[in-house]
Amino acid sequence: MFLNHRTPQLPTPEEALRGRPTPEFTVPSRHTVLGNPLVGPYPQGLEVADFALGCFWGAERKFWQTEGVWTTLVGYQGGYTENPSYEETCSGLTGHTEAVRVVFDPRVVSYAELLKLFWESHNPTQGFRQGNDVGTQYRSALYPHTPEQAEAATASREAYQQVLTGAGYGEITTEILPAEGRPFWPAEAYHQQYLDKNPDGYCGIGGTGAKLSAPSETNWGRSCPTGIAPAPE
């Protein structure tokens, strides 16, 4: 949410803020909309997926409104700082994205369908920004939890690149990196389900208008079998 007039640049591990061994705040126990626990362990048969697509307030709402999503929570992921704060992440010195963790029932909604929502809900060609939101924390990213998720994520990126190229957009800058070794650090309580608590609050999420074919119509959706992803760190 901060318009930064200097060119954003990711910190190196040596430059990143060190953080702290334990969080400075507590996370609410339950989702204000869905009523289910925010943090794991989650019921057997559910999957976990992590998405970064700009300001996490609007991004989270996109997912909790989707049938088959059991719970969502926002946090910081993909950088170096342990247990970061929002202010630290916005400084650009943690290396994290603003991410959404989505816990879903694959019998109702597939990971491929969530990928379609992800791609169509933001502009993945903008690098360290989404619209007027400028900073490394706003970059587009996927953090797969399983080899199957990683394969589907990569295939969907290739498929959406074809769609965007045809619509006159440039190269996708979305990074796809394993969730393993990239802990998801839950954000402060006031960020969780922010747009439910503040219906008129800021939402910078907006797609390009370019649509990805439904997974059933393409090959990229075939690599999304059901399964159980690891509980959050």
From TrEMBL:
State the protein's purpose. Answer: Has an important function as a repair enzyme for proteins that have been inactivated by oxidation. Catalyzes the reversible oxidation-reduction of methionine sulfoxide in proteins to methionine.
Q: Does the keyword Oxidoreductase apply?
A: yes
Entry's family note: Belongs to the MsrA Met sulfoxide reductase family.
* Example GO BP: cellular response to oxidative stress
Catalytic activity as recorded in UniProt: L-methionyl-[protein] + [thioredoxin]-disulfide + H2O = L-methionyl-(S)-S-oxide-[protein] + [thioredoxin]-dithiol; [thioredoxin]-disulfide + L-methionine + H2O = L-methionine (S)-S-oxide + [thioredoxin]-dithiol
Query: Which E.C. number(s) belong to this protein?
Result: 1.8.4.11
Alphabetized UniProt keyword annotations: Oxidoreductase
Q: InterPro entries, per this entry?
A: Met_Sox_Rdtase_MsrA_dom, Met_Sox_Rdtase_MsrA_sf, MsrA_MetSO_reductase
Q: Which Pfam families match?
A: PMSR
Q: Where is the active site?
A: C55
Where in this protein does the record put region Disordered? 1-23
Protein name in the entry? Peptide methionine sulfoxide reductase MsrA
GO MF terms held by the record: peptide-methionine (S)-S-oxide reductase activity
Q: Identify the GO cellular component terms for this protein.
A: cytoplasm
Q: Give the source species.
A: Streptomyces fulvorobeus
Domain named Peptide methionine sulphoxide reductase MsrA: which ranges? 50-203
